[in-house]
Amino acid sequence: MSSRHHQPTGQMAIIAVIVVIAALFAIGSALQHTVSCILLSFILAYLFDPLLVAMERKRIRRVYGLAVLYAGLTVAAFFFFTFLVPPLSGRWFALVQEMPKYLQKAQTLILSYKMRMLPSTATDEWLWLVQSVSGQIDTFIGGIGGKVYAAATGLVFNLFNLVLAPVLVLFMLYYKQDVKTFIAGWLPSRHRESLLKLGCEINESVGGYLRGQIVVSAIVAVLAIVALVVLDVDYPVFNGIFAGFSSILPFIGVILATLPPLFFAYVKYQQGIILVKVVIAFSVIYFLEGYLIKPLVFRKSMDLNPLATIIVVMAFGELMGFWGIVLAVPIAAAFKVFTDHLRRGDFSH
Q1: Which end of the chain, C or N, has fewer beta carbons within 10 A?
Q2: Helices (DSSP H) in 31-157: which residue ranges?
Q3: Alpha-carbon distance 249 to 237, whole Å?
Q4: Contact 201, 337 (CB under 8 A)
Q5: Are the CB atoms for 299 and 312 separated by under 8 Å?
Q6: Choice between 51 and 96, residue whose per-residue pLDDT is larger
Q7: How many angstroms separate the Cα of 109 from the Cα of each of 134, 141, 179, 222?
Q8: Overall pTM > 0.90
Q9: CA distances (Å), 61 to each of 46, 67, 70, 153, 182, in order?
């Protein structure tokens, strides 16, 4: 009798968890910019907290550690907004203004290739195929301009997050211990030790990944910028930054990172040899990333299944956009740690 009563209760718990997760995704979609600001603040607090912990080990109180941290961040922000933001913002708005010219050149090239591909004795099927393919390419290129303008608008809107995030980070770091104590108090007493151990393992895995991925992305961005400057490809900084962000995506990031430089390089030079040079440069960069940089940065592998990782990244990217892509791998790693504990029966007694 008790087992029959326990089974519906377990099913109701699973349904409740699914409903809560769906509600969180719905709220995140409705409050996209608010959730984005909170996630940005949480990740920044997560990355800065080890510095405060190191200070606390040296008998420096957290409030004083926060003062030192924010003093350093203030100096860094001053140099960043004084020396880096003006040239970067100028180049960004130049890119937005010049993008229609690049698109026009690309459409002209496509039209010329279409005329070369059509023989004088072309059949109706051949004409239909070429026109369909070129039409799809025209539609794709035409959509790029709108996405660039949308990205520019979103960049201006998200400046508000950059102002609000430091305040949220300050409160998150200052009240960290209070939040941990509050959460620990709500954990069931018989599983409290196991759950706290689980939280420490997830913290180590996710924290190591986030910090390591920032280092990897920065190195890839710098290498890409240097390579594109040497090859004299337009907008090397933005293409390099995009390559750094693309390195977050497992396996398919290298393909996405190569597409914009190929576009700018070919529209500028209109020669096949420049495409070969760009591909070789990015192949070398991602070879170094995969076989030298990542093994040095990620000392402890998360050992995630490649196919499952790609599916998780695609699913979370579809549900949460940029933050879904960023957090997909850490969430998958946390889930793997949880299932390992569950498989060992750590919560069965």
Answers
A1: N
A2: 32-57, 62-79, 85-117, 124-157
A3: 20
A4: yes
A5: no
A6: 51
A7: 11, 12, 59, 31
A8: no
A9: 18, 10, 14, 41, 21
Residues 6+ apart with CB under 8 A from 188: 195
Q: What angle do CA 144, 148, 284 make, to 5 degrees?
A: 80
Mean per-residue pLDDT for 215-228?
94
**Own/partner pairs for 345-349, CB < 8 Å, 24+ apart?**
346/194, 346/197, 346/198, 347/191, 347/194, 347/195, 349/190
301: left (phi over 0), alpha (psi -120 to 50) or beta: beta
Please give the Cα distance from 315 to 325 (Å, whole number).
9
Residues 101-138 have pLDDT tens digits of 787 777 777 667 666 655 554 555 555 555 565 555 55
The rounded distance, in Å, linking the Cα atoms of 335 and 332 is 5
Average pLDDT over residues 74-102: 84
Looking up tokens 């719905």, which residue turns up?
26
176 in Cβ contact with 49 (< 8 Å): yes
Letter string b/e over residues 105-134, b meaning 16 or more CB atoms within 10 A of that residue's CB: ebeeebeeeeeeeeeeeeeeeeeeebeeeb
Taking all residues of the chain, what is their mean pLDDT, rounded to a whole number?
78
Q: Identify whether the C-beta of residue 89 lies closer than 8 Å to the C-beta of residue 254.
A: no
Which phi and psi (to 5°) does residue 38 adopt?
A: -65, -45
Q: Is 188 left (phi over 0), alpha (psi -120 to 50) or beta?
A: beta
Q: Are 264 and 148 in contact (CB under 8 A)?
A: no
The token duo for 180 is 């941990």
HSE at residue 320, side-chain half, CA atoms within 13 A, is 22
Confidence of residue 258 (pLDDT cuts 50, 70, 90): very high
